[in-house]
Amino acid sequence: MKRIFLIIGTVLVTSILLKVLFVEARSYDVTAEEYFDRGLEYAEGGDIERAIAEWQKAVEISPGYPDAHYNLGVAYSAIGRFDKAVEEFKEALRFMPESLEIRHNLGAAYASQGNLDAALREFRKIIRTNPNFAQAYYNIGTIYSLKGDLSNAVNQLEEAVRINPNYFEAYVFLGDLYAETGRKLSARNAYKRAIALSSDPQKTEEIRDKIEALRR
Description:
By secondary structure, the protein is an all-alpha fold. It folds into two domains: 1-130, Tetratricopeptide repeat domain (Serine Threonine Protein Phosphatase 5, Tetratricopeptide repeat), CATH 1.25.40.10; 134-216, Alpha Horseshoe (Serine Threonine Protein Phosphatase 5, Tetratricopeptide repeat). It contains eleven helices and two strands, in the order ββααααααααααα. It has helices spanning 30-44, 48-61, 66-78, 82-95, 100-113, 116-129, 134-146, 150-163, 168-180, 184-197, 201-214, and strands at residues 11-13, 16-17. It has a two-stranded antiparallel sheet. A hairpin with a 2-residue loop joins strand 1 (11-13) and strand 2 (16-17). The protein is elongated. Residues 1-24 have low confidence and may be disordered.
């Protein structure tokens, strides 16, 4: 079975995180699958533009090919074409409306466009379907933070770490929010939890610097 190549693995914009997953490609027209496979090869080699060209050919032949639309959305996001990414994720959702991962990526693309209200709607839809989708709470918290609503941002991040106690990025962000709102002890505790979860010496040192800054 083939797998969909994912190009984005971490942050799209201001802590809005893209949900990363592998899904199995389904059986479609052979020629469309050939283009799909070529796109994977180019993407794995780092040639995103040529990967996009191949996946576009795949959807021209088989317009109802959600895996190819999905990969196009991820690829367009990788090169900053969030308008096109939104189009492709919406098209993928048309054929796979129950996919929370695709909806999550659509929300991330909206957020990267600066369309925070549209992003918020998508993330809330996810939570209504799956109240334990921790990354959606993280992203809602990020949106509230961008809107200046730090109290609601904190609430969302606290829910994210309640659901996933090993959510490193959420603890760091929560620590930042606590620090910004004057809750130094809570900030220190969040940062210490992040350090306990960290496997990256550079990130650990950066968090230690944040803790040191709380003493000033």
